[in-house]
Amino acid sequence: MLANPLVLPQVGGNISVTKINQDVYSSEYLFRNSTSRYVVKIRHSKTKKGADAVEYDRHNVEVTQTIFASGSVAEYERKFYFVYENLPSDTSVDLADAIADLMIASSNAFLVSLQNWES
Question: Do the Cβ atoms of 44 and 58 come closer than 8 Å?
Answer without folding.
Answer: yes
